């Protein structure tokens, strides 16, 4: 259960946020992964969570879907505390490693997860067909999952997350290891889902994928370095690609951390205090 | 707990095994081969009649323990468990699904092994041989339940496999098969009284030796079932939606 770190719920100005994280602290195996994280994922936006491996992206996502033990802070998702029973059919979660059954066919996998969501009979058949179509796997529906390619495997896992048209999609590195054409197609799909009202939080360690997002969160060592639209992040750092922007922000944070000043001008009010080391 | 979610999970587990015909083959054939070997070793002695039936209950217990431990560990490590726990699936639905699926497999295994023992190997059964089958299935469910529970404590496949000698062999040594339980040293007899496999073997023994031991068999059967339910409940308690 989420412990109330700060006093009561924070029904603040960002009331429309699909996900609101306040003062989140997570310790895993004696290591502080998220020291004190505060952020909002606005409803209906496609938010890219970018950062190097080990920056805490997966841990943050696990907190949002409610499977991570937390040491403090409040995570509110679609108006409920993260992990609430009410949220279990409203969130689609794709783990980083493809979490599907290798010894079942593509259809059998998706049909099982659809059954878990309470879909039966003809409705289930239609929903399975729909998500397989979305990830272009219709032609491979009868293949056993442990015999498909790596790219197809991760799309099976994605298809399971899309079942039941969840209001929030939390996708952990959905495009890792995919060829450029497939990556472009998936980002087109994410944009399409976003335009239909779904909120998406998509993590990646490939910085150039950031340009396709409405909003960008740059993360490093459990802290948010920037949280703004891609053009605004580039403008604030005076760079023309996201990787450069990231490096600039890391340098600034390192340079100023001893003086304890903030990077407020480019990171916005929510994340201005991240530099306190 | 939802019947349809339990059924869906059981169906999924059975489909996984159906894609693995060699496992089904091993599951059905190995007990028959071992029982045949035993009957051959002890030909012209009463030993096979004495231990054949208890073994019919022990095989499904051991096999289902092992199969379930590995299956659940795979579910934990592949991330499918994490996904399922974010979905509207109750823990009881998941555990119940496994118990149902492996119960079905155990029925198949026990039916073939029992039929083979009676009709081919000439096992003498004084009581009702359908009861023999029923006890074997309940033993299998017990194995599944214990496997589900212990797999929570195994971080790797190596550890899971070693839980077999750790949890199963002591029960095997003390269940009355090697030395009748009332002839064991007092302390060991007391220990055997709290181990579920003892009651499974007692039940099998009653069925083969007495045509009228129905009451004792039912009592032993209920004890085994109670152990299975307790292990499933303990297994549910080890399944945490939130992990570190």
Q: What would you say this structure looks like, in words?
A:
The complex is a heterodimer of chains A (277) and B (244). Chain A has eight helices and ten strands. With 277 residues, chain A is of the alpha/beta class. Chain B has helices at residues 3-18, 21-41, 47-78, 80-85, 91-120, 129-151, 157-174, 186-193, 196-209, 214-238. Chain B has ten helices and no strands. Chains A and B meet through helix 2 of A and helix 1 and helix 4 of B.
User: What low-confidence regions of chain A span 5 or more consecutive residues with pLDDT below 50?
Assistant: 1-14, 257-277
Radius of gyration of chain B: 18 Å
Number of helices of chain B: 10
Number of strands of chain A: 10
Q: Tell me, what's the shape of chain B?
A: globular
- Percentage of β-strand residues of chain A: 15-25%
Estimated share of beta-strand residues of chain B: under 5%
Of all chain pairs, the largest interface belongs to: A-B, 33 and 25 residues
Q: Give the H and E element order of chain B.
A: HHHHHHHHHH
Can you summarize this structure?
The complex is a heterodimer of chains A (277) and B (244). By secondary structure, chain A is of the alpha/beta class.
What labels would you give this structure?
heterodimer; A: 277 residues; alpha/beta; six-stranded mixed beta sheet; four-stranded antiparallel beta sheet; 8 helices; 10 strands; globular; disordered N terminus; disordered C terminus; B: 244 residues; mainly alpha; 10 helices; 79% helix
């Amino acid at each position: 259960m989420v412990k109330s770190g700060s006093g009561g719920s924070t029904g603040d100005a960002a009331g429309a946020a699909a996900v609101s994280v306040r003062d989140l602290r997570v310790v895993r195996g004696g290591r502080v992964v998220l020291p004190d994280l505060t952020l909002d994922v606005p409803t209906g936006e496609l938010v890219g969570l970018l950062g190097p491996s080990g920056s805490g992206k997966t841990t943050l996502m696990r907190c949002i879907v409610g499977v991570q033990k937390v040491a403090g802070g409040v995570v509110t998702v679609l108006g409920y505390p993260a992990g609430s029973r009410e949220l279990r059919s409203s969130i689609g979660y794709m783990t980083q490693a493809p979490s599907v059954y290798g010894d079942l066919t593509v259809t059998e996998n998706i049909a099982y997860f659809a059954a878990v969501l309470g879909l039966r009979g003809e409705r289930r058949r239609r929903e399975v067909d729909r998500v397989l179509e979305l990830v272009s796997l219709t032609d491979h529906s009868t293949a056993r999952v442990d015999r498909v390619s790596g790219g197809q495997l991760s799309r099976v896992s994605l298809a399971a997350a899309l079942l039941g048209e969840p209001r929030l999609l939390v996708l952990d590195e959905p495009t890792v290891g995919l060829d450029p054409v497939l990556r472009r197609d998936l980002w087109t799909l994410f944009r399409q889902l976003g335009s239909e009202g779904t909120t998406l939080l998509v993590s990646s360690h490939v910085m150039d994928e950031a340009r396709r997002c409405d909003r960008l969160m740059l993360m490093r060592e459990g802290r948010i370095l920037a949280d703004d639209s891609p053009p605004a992040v580039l403008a604030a750092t005076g760079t023309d690609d996201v990787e450069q922007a990231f490096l600039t922000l890391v340098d600034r944070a390192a340079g100023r951390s001893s003086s304890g000043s903030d990077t407020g001008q480019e990171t916005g009010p929510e994340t201005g205090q991240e530099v306190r080391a | 707990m939802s019947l349809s979610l339990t059924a869906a999970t059981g169906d999924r587990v059975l489909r996984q095994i159906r894609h693995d015909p060699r496992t089904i083959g091993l599951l059905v054939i190995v007990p028959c081969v071992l029982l045949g070997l035993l009957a051959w070793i002890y030909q012209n002695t009463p030993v096979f009649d004495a231990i054949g039936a208890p073994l019919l209950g022990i095989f499904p217990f051991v096999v289902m323990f092992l199969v379930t431990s590995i299956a659940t560990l795979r579910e934990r490590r592949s991330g499918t468990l994490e996904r399922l726990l974010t979905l509207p699936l109750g823990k009881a639905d998941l555990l119940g699904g496994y118990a149902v699926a492996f119960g079905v497999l155990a029925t198949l295994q026990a039916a073939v092994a029992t039929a083979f023992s009676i009709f081919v190997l000439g096992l003498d059964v004084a009581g009702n041989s359908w009861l023999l089958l029923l006890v074997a299935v309940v033993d299998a469910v017990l194995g599944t339940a214990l496997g589900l529970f212990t797999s929570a404590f195994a971080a790797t496949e190596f550890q899971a496999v070693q839980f077999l000698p750790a949890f199963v062999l002591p029960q095997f040594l003390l269940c009355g098969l090697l030395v009748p339980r009332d002839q064991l040293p007092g302390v060991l007899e007391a220990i055997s009284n709290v181990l579920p496999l003892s009651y499974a073997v007692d039940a099998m023994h009653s069925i083969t030796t007495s045509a009228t031991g129905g009451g004792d068999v039912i009592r032993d059967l209920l004890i085994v079932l109670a152990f299975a339910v307790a292990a499933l409940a303990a297994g549910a308690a080890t399944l945490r939606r939130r992990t570190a």
